[in-house]
Amino acid sequence: MSRNGCRVLYLDGYTVPDPKAGVPSSDAIGYGITASAAIRDGLAALGLDVVRPRLDAAPADPGGPDHRLSWILANYRSVLRELVEDPPDVIFCFHIFSVFPVEIRRMLLDLGLSIPIVGYTHGSHWDPTDTFRFETYPGMEVLDLANLHVLDRVLLVSEYMRTTLRSTIGAFNAPLAEHVDAHAAVVGLPLAVDRIDACRTSRRFPRPTVVFNHAPVSSKNPELFARVMARVLPHQDVAVLITRDFAPWQPGGEAIAELAARFPEQVILGRDLPLDEYFAALWAADLQVSTATHESLGVSTLEAMYTGNCCILPRVGSYPEICDGHPDVLYEPGEGPLEERLRWFLEHPEDRRAVAFDLQRLSARFHPRVVVQKIAAEVLSLAVGGP
């Protein structure tokens, strides 16, 4: 370990300079911005020397594919420069499908360096429900597995992810699955509580408001949400806030646009709210709904929980885990069960507030001081030569 403590070369995931020009994932909005900053700041506050690579200037076109690819190449060049000039004690990859650990491991081997690599996987080709991976990067399952295999510590966001990887990789190659699992640690992701708390407001929306704060991707199933709300809105004094922008060609784009056209007084289109406005809106809202068919953790739901919303979640992925199996929160996937649960909470505000209180308490498990302590323990263990 270096003389001044553990020196961590921290590699962020890609985030676009202009969300309007970006891709429909958390590269633009979401955990890629908020959680990564909370980890960096938290590790530094615990005394680790967190350094980030010095990147070359990016092309002028912000957010396009060439900008993303140029950024990735700049990271590799910067990592190489750091390894040659001032090698760190640990390399930390916030998103292993952004800057590939396989390439970093190759650098280390060619340079004759022995430096542990820690990395998060926030989704996986080895999760059969992760349709975004299959649709955007088809045929890259083995590369995804190679990235997992070369890590000295695989950081996972949920027990769901651990169980899923163990099962699916095990069906492909049992020894590889055992190796990945032996190097895995479930640590969760931290919420950006300082920023969320700074946006706290006593303002409430004029009528009970349902938030849909999910990305325009097929695995979030926005069409189902739109169909259910189209049946609920005519009979309830309720508003809907869609926080993300849904372009017509994206999953759910046409359905969301039609919903807003039919109910212009009740549907609010946030069109990628700036973060501070987004957090303020969560504090002012009442309910959050997910219709997802895939969820590795659910940061948008955890943010809604932390800000005092009653969440209605399908019994899929990590949702039972983050709500501790709360029977009033979970519904069996489908339009009927969701509509029934939503109508119940709209008609029973006391029950809604009680569930929101329960969920707010549960969200404390994802406070940075809890999560970053777990991450720091894994990093320091590797820095001193731990397994």
TrEMBL record:
Any GO molecular function: glycosyltransferase activity
Coiled-coil annotated residue ranges, if any: none
Domain Glycosyltransferase subfamily 4-like N-terminal: 54-170
Keyword tags: Glycosyltransferase, Transferase
Matching Pfam families: Glyco_trans_1_4, Glyco_transf_4
SUPFAM superfamilies: UDP-Glycosyltransferase/glycogen phosphorylase
Name of this chain's protein: Glycosyltransferase involved in cell wall bisynthesis
Source organism: Blastococcus mobilis
Lineage: Bacteria, Bacillati, Actinomycetota, Actinomycetes, Geodermatophilales
